[in-house]
Amino acid sequence: MWRHPCSPLALVLLLNSLELQASVSYKPNFLIFLADDFGIGDLGCYGNDTIRTPNIDRLAEEGVKLTQHISAAPVCSPSRAAFLTGRYPVRSGLDERDRFRVISWLAGSGGLPQNETTFAKILQNKGYTTGLIGKWHLGMNCQTRDDFCHHPLNHGFDYFYGMPFSLMGDCQITYPPEKDMPQRIKLWSYTLLIALAVLTLMAAKLTHLLPLSWKTIFSLALFGCAFFISWFSSYGFIRYWDCIVMRNYEITEQPMKVERAASLVLREAISFIERNKQGPFFLFVSFLHVHTPVVTTERFRGKSRHGLYGDNVEEMDWMVGRILDKLDKENLKNSTLTYFTSDHGGHLEAREGNAPRGGWNGIYKGGKAMAGWEGGIRVPGLFRWTGMLPEGKIIHEPTSLMDIFPTLVHLAGGTVPQDRIIDGRDLMPLLQGSVQHSEHEFLFHYCGMHLHAARWHQKDSGNVWKVHYMTPIFHPEGSGGCYNIIFCQCSGKYVRQHDPPLLFDLSRDPSEAVSLSPDTEPLFHEVLKRIGRAVEEHRRTLTPVPSQLSFGHNIWKPWLQPCCGTFPFCWCDKEKENL
Ligand SMILES: *[C@@H]1O[C@H](CO)[C@@H](O)[C@H](O)[C@H]1NC(C)=O
Ligand SMILES: *[C@@H]1O[C@H](CO)[C@@H](O)[C@H](O)[C@H]1NC(C)=O
Ligand SMILES: *[C@@H]1O[C@H](CO)[C@@H](O)[C@H](O)[C@H]1NC(C)=O
């Protein structure tokens, strides 16, 4: 609508834009919440009426809600790499090779490459104090136990507290804690036993009591060690290897006490704000929630209507609330851009008996590990910045988690790296309403290194087309998940190739229920051709990079094992001492 330039509204608009410019001249704080494996269907503000998430919902009421917010990968490590670098994970080598899709051991040598630049690094250079509290899962060491080449502190964070790896089933002890001691005693006895056996054999050989060759003795010793290592890495020792907590470079808990993690994460987040309230700061709260085994504090257990999983969601929401309260208390609400999202969709196959233990992806098909179906990649996206962003606004345009990179870099007064391709786009114009359309015309949906699908937002018509070149084969057929293998895979016998590709129009069929055909969609061939061309253009921008998830990188390397003590006797609980 056109208005006379002197009308009161125009004046107000003019004033508003002057005010905007004035207020952008300071550096806002950034508070980012990233949930783990959290489905878009589990939030009140996205339509769930039985899980209570009032604190996260508050962000939607007081800010902008994105309904088509897309993660770059459907599993943890690659999605987080893309989030922090603003680039598709294939560009940094965090894509599947040899069937590994995430970093599988803390003592592997793969991780976020040192020559990748995270937005934390740029914010740090722009004078921000940057902190990561919670999960990392992007590697640790390259060559020695303490080179920390992939550590958060070498990727732009001034402070790190949390799990360098990921929460998983093995982190939770299923036997009483008292049983922990005998475990260690066993370890000592086995070590002594093997040493003693080898020494005895050597003594026997030297005194000519036994007619054994050195070769045999060496083989026996090797066999003993191999047996020892295999014994050591089973029987609950994965917990010692992978489930640890660090403060900066120091291990504070090995193995971690999972039931204590939530309160420590909360304590650390609040004290980070307290320490840095004069700003500018960037606090990245990377939740261990709601990943299995959904360990939940007593206080929330049995309180939700959706079992342990629901309890865990409500606990996370409570933590968000406590951290937001701290912002309010310090009068930082208006000067802080707050963002909430999840690394990818909920894990449908995580079940306990008949009850789900993973998330719910609402009306969207599929979930975690599925790159093509919306349920794997469409996640919550909430932005609040009081006074700077509209309140209660809903945006249906396609956006990506990779957009956070350029958005925050620009707000901090920085520039994005010019020597590489950044796939994210600055979101501020869209969030503030100065443009109507997202800058993303195409988005590419990778499953590991395999392109499973692509979407095209046809701006003039408003259609959001999506083609699937491959889809995972569900088991049982039609169930919407891969219940035989826990995770859907990306290639080989686990997927079905489609030629012609499957085509959906998400603007009419967001659940991807009925695929279109040339009979039902006159534009069928035209759309496929247009997207095919975009895929070709996109492919031309890719250059081969060393894989971080190759077999060679992704195995347990004892010499890289972070260890609180003298390897292999790694255990400590410094939190207990501090409590
Ligand atoms: C709310 O979340 C629960 C738990 O994931 C799910 O079972 C339920 O169907 C959801 N409700 C709606 C309306 O989406
Ligand atoms: C924060 O912004 C809101 C809306 O612009 C304003 O009403 C409020 O007074 C501001 N609060 C502070 C502490 O500046
Ligand atoms: C990082 O190093 C690898 C290996 O040398 C190279 O292939 C890649 O292009 C580099 N990435 C950037 C962003 O410079």
TrEMBL record:
The chain crosses the membrane at residues 187-204, 216-238. Residues 28-413 form the Sulfatase N-terminal domain. Keywords: Calcium, Hydrolase, Membrane, Metal-binding, Signal, Transmembrane, Transmembrane helix. Its cofactor is Ca(2+). The keyword Membrane applies. It comes from the Eukaryota. GO terms for molecular function: arylsulfatase activity; metal ion binding. CDD domains: ES (cd16159). InterPro entries: Alkaline_phosphatase_core_sf, Sulfatase, Sulfatase_CS, Sulfatase_N. One of its GO terms (cellular component) is endoplasmic reticulum. Residues 1-22 form the signal peptide. Belongs to the sulfatase family. This is Arylsulfatase D-like isoform X2. It comes from Podarcis lilfordi. The lineage of its organism: Eukaryota, Metazoa, Chordata, Craniata, Vertebrata.
